[in-house]
Design brief:
heterotrimer; A mainly alpha; B alpha/beta; C alpha/beta; A: mainly alpha; two-stranded antiparallel sheet; C: alpha/beta; Rossmann fold; six-stranded parallel β-sheet; six-stranded mixed β-sheet; 12 helices; 17% strand
Chain lengths: 366, 508, 341
Amino acid sequence: MSKNNEKISSARILQIINTVIRHKLFIPIAFLVSLLLLNVFINPGFLRITLGKDSAGNPVLIGNLINILSNATELVILAIGMTLVTASSKGQDISVGAAVAIVGGVIMRVLCGNETQPSTLHAPVLLALLLGCLAGMACGAFNGMLVSRFQIQPMVATLILFTAGRSIASMAMGGLKPKAASAFGCYGNFIPGFPVPTPILITIAMIAMTCVILKKTNLGLYTKAVGINDKAASLNGLHPKRIKFLTFIIMGFCVGIAGFVQASRVQTVNPYTIVPSIEMDVILAVALGGNSLGGGKFSIKGSIIGAYTIQTLTSMLTTLNVNTNAVPVFKAVIILILVAIQTPMVSSLFHNKSSRVLISGRKERG
Amino acid sequence: MQKKVLKMRGIYKSFPGVKALQNVDFTLHEGEIHALMGENGAGKSTLIKVLTGVYTKDAGEVYIDEADRPVHIKSPQEAQKHGISTVYQEITLCPNLTVAENLFIGRTDELFVNWKKNNQLAETILKSLGIPAKPAQQLSSCSIAVQQMVAIARAVDMECKVLILDEPTSSLDDQEVLKLFDLMRELKARNVGIIFVTHFLEQVYALCDKITVLRNGELVGEYLIKDLPKIELVAKMMGKELGDLANIHNNAREEALSKSEAVIEATALSSSSGIRPFDFTAYKGEVTGFAGLLGSGRSECVRAIFGADRVTKGRLKIKGETVAISSPIKAMRKGVGYLSEDRKRDGIIGDLSIRDNIILALQVMNGFFKPFTKAQAQAFAEEYIRLLGIKTASADTPISSLSGGNQQKVILARWLLTHPDYLILDEPTRGIDIGTKVEIQKLVLKLASEGMSITFISSEIEEMLRTCSRLIIMRDLYVVGELTGDDLSQDRIMYTIAGGENQNVKKQ
Amino acid sequence: MKIFKKLIILVLAFSMMFSVVSCGKTSSEASDNSTVAPTSADTSASDTADKIVVGVVQTNANESDWRTANTKSFNEAFADAGFELKMVFGEGDHAKQISQAQQLIQEEVDYLVVLGLQSAGWEDVAKAAQEAGIPFIMADRKLDLSEDLYTAMVCSDFAAEGAKAVDWLKAQALDSYQIVVLGGDTGSSAQLGRSQAIEDGAAANGWEIVFNQNMKGWDETLAKQAVADLIASGQQFNVIYAENDNMARGACDAMDAAGITYGKTGDVKVIAFDANKWALEKVLAGEFNLDVECNPLHGPRIVKLINQLEAGEAVEKNAYVDEEMFDCDTITQAIVDARSY
């Protein structure tokens, strides 16, 4: 009797394993976990988090994990917006880096005025945040208009801002390179007395907000419907153009928040070098999350996992002190592996194996 | 007796699950315009594709030029070598090249091309065929009709003996059609045999010498145009003999209708799709139908009511209230539902679950900020899965993995969930099994008895007769008649399709 | 008849081509003269009749404080000297710079000054300038050109800058050397020169380089995150060798956040390059130990050079701008105040 139970429970476990493996987020999560494990293997202190003190004597958490969580903030936030844009418009926004520069430029101008080294902030940070988000959403509206109204391919439409954005940012700053008062720094670093980096808190807030929006509105359903079949969606009363436009506005808001955090990290913005080539990392995060870059169904959870994967990889290449010329190659190889695993060919192989395990488990039982 | 240029005998072709062609014969003489007719799925395009080598036939023989030996055509290039050219509905030329370049490109093996000579040659060809285009003109600057003509000129110039025109007139206006006809007559005079595939009856009778009718992959017959009145052609395409079938229509339903209120009143409505202005009224508890051949404009009428095409003219009243329907959501809010004709393209949201597909329309009506909870959505889905007997393991299954009939039931569920006052079902039974068809017909009658007004469109006449109490008959984008009561018979329908007068415009 | 027509067309075409070629010849011949003797009395007389036009191919309008000061220096010096300045910006695009330079040659500027984004690929431009008789002057960064292709060079010697820092570091006589190298944009001559100097220095003195990677775009944030990662992983270091001021500041931010002391009184020595005014203030405050100057004030030197060429004097072909270094032990408020950028 007990033996029979045991057998049944082992089959049950196999079945659970099988469902887990078949889950669409299995590969992204598995990859992130294995990358983290690899880090632990290379550097046993990787998971260690210590409570230290910064030079002003405030408590701070120090550790690689903390760094990854904190530094991935911009990537995570942008990946949320990019996922929606990809799903609805079947293309990517490659202007996010330039748009972040514009947001940063606007924020610096608001906080510093025309001074280069102001000792106090010229305006409340909230106002800077607000104007920054507006600037980001204006960029999103521009891109969204080109994509939805003029039906230009997203890649091409956003190429315009990609090309001009950083120069616009420089103009917004009046050609200056100001450094804002250090009080602004707490949004990209630590709030004095609180040991968790603020960007982590902002990430949590953004993810929570996304969850609430997806739960409380039909954004998810509409975006998917438009992305999968916009003809059918419009015959069901949706306005595909408006939905696409909306996703670009949301992308713009994400750019605003990301630009705010980025500007606060060192309290200065160099429009030509801020977040270099981040657009490619963001698109990659979306792809690594198991999302199709051809639009349609999406998983924001997947994109967030993808963003953390990329940040872990970046951090790993730093701590390993990989030869600087080899860094891109290293990154490329790992991405290649990741993308290859997710191709239908490989994954079907994977699934067949797992179902074979299940069958053999059943045979044993019989 | 003129020479036979093409003889096809006993052609068979099947696809998994479908017998597309069964023992089909086809003969074409030189200098003959031969119409190939049939409803959707009759096998017209399969026959053309077998002839041009796009498909390989399963059995049968093709003879060219009264030769004794059959030829085996394996590719369109080979067909070309045998003198068989095809011009499709969509232009397959390069719009950014000149007319002359389009005429000659890819036809010579020479390394160097003497474009000056080619331009002169093109000039002569265009002139001789009366095509109003200049050789050096960019093709995209020509009208669609001229582009079509250039495509024909290219085909003809490649020493073609058999020219296949696949729906060449569907994107042309009346003037352009006349020009194309002139060109076709010119080619006929040059002894080219032309196979003309179209669904415009008028055009067939204006131009053709012979008609071959196919139905369900089988040959119905080959007729001289003068021996086959339109009415008989329609009967043959639909597979009915005149006066053969008894009127199975149930009159019992009609009595209450006269008293009931009008749900939809359309006056001189027309849309960007090209349909001519039409009047239409639908009453509460009534099942109406739009009948006509494929492409006659029956779908376009209901699309205009639903706001799926841009309404250009006319007035629409819903439940007595004049409304401006500029988009589907406005019609939906007024209680109109529309199950679209092409399920794959316009109906299902492929990768989404059955649940999401069922709740979609109601959800959109509900508004962006009021999503159903998962439990609500699940309850809706389960209710309709049970009600309509949708065969699926769970509501989470993607709709794309269901069979055609079950997909259609999901879309039907989507619209029933919105509880419309007026429901349009455009070909709800196409491509689904017979059991489901009957279920859907029964459901339509049940819904009507409960007070819903329904418009039912189908290519199958019996289905319409069984369900509809009033039929609007359409031909060539015009409403040509309306049948009720005792007039609802196959004979009357076919007669009206073939010969009825236009509702609004007198024919010349 | 037809053949005859064709023949005539052929002849006409040939004669036209020939005339174009001969035109080009004469103009280049004329300009050849001017290169041979750019200082001959007649040319200088005709040139001084109207303003001397100098075309400057700048890298980016505002890539850094340094660049801003650099651009400003050109504007001011040229205005004072009464030259007409035609400045164009490559904005990070090497190919764009090349075509801009070609365009300036077409516009027949009197002098062409190039500040190249990349050091390779300038041969054709230099040759074209030579053929057009336009003196070709390299500024800021040395380009890969043979000596006969350019007229003069006014550049920063990045390897020498790095060597200065290495000498200073050696003089500190630390017990051990664990160096973090924060490199600039991979492949730029500044990065190549400065990285090479510290790598050579470390090899010669037995120092340990514990980290050596280039930060995309000389970016402050990336430098900060890299140093934070190193600290978190427990990597020990006592020298930060940051190849510009911004990256040094980013590294300091990261150390601040982890409570690591640095600078004059701290555990970690911070070496920066470029010496912007704000960075010198940090040196004065004892936050940076050393800042090696990379002088952006090319304007006056180029003006002097052009005046010499105009006057027919011999010029120094390969000139490097004078560059100092500022040590936190010796810097004074006066030095900081004297800084204009």
